Amino acid sequence: MRSSRGVFSRTALVFGLVFLYVPILSMVIFSFNNSRLVTVWDAAHSPTLKWYAALMSNGQIMGAAWLSIRIALISATGAVILGTLTGVALARFGPFRGRTLLTGMTTAPIVMPEVITGLSLLLMFVSLEQLIGWPKGSGALTITLSHITFCMAYVTVVVQSRLAGFDESLEEAAMDLGARPVKVFFRITLPLIVPGILSGWLLAFTLSWDDLVITQFVAGPGSSTLPMVIFSKVRLGVSPDVNALATIMVTVVALGIVASAIWMRYQNRRRERDEQLAAAANL
Hints:
The protein is mostly helical. It has a single domain (44-270), classed as MetI-like (MetI-like fold). It has twelve helices and no strands. The chain has helices at 2-30, 50-56, 59-92, 99-111, 114-132, 140-164, 168-176, 181-192, 194-210, 213-218, 226-236, 240-282. Helix 3 packs antiparallel against helix 9 and helix 4 (99-111) packs across helix 6 (140-164). It starts with a helix and ends with a helix.
């Protein structure tokens, strides 16, 4: 029975990985296709990079890409700051008045349908413009504020889970030695939860860069992000340069994940080495 379960588990794992990654691999391969047909390989000609060159000369796509990158960078940074503070409050402050409300408000964007979130944000921005005259119209500012709102929820969950397994005796020892709570946070707590914060930043950056539904509600004229441009091009018919664009996006995300994994592995080894040196010094 155990052998059959192991075979079934491995088969299911392989099937799942193939189902997920074969379409991505085929998209990467067809980005070098010489034919203008997206799904038909031109065997009469050798692979080409002309679609990447055509992509770089496409002003609409490049402008949307740079706008998406700027929005994602600002949104991820803002979400990390607010999400880290919220996660620390929920993990460290214990029961306090408004805790249930804060928990519900931070987790609501995760479980709420994106259509509802986008519509509610649109109505809020319209109401604010009528009441105080800000923000003036829809654009990059409203997109950034919206992305910070829902990305913050994911960062809060990541940071709170990281603090749940945190050894509080380190903080208590620092305070016993005379360190103030603020200094303990910046010298002890923050360096140890940096891997969680970095993971939350990468997750927020990816979610902001990839968002389509909420962005369509709060975007205005001249503020089309990259997912919006790709979606509009797909509706009119996929062109080979879209494959090249998707390949670049997959490559950037993969490089970011690899770099993050290498950095976190380096940090773990460094922390283990410091712990061993500290233990040797106490002997």
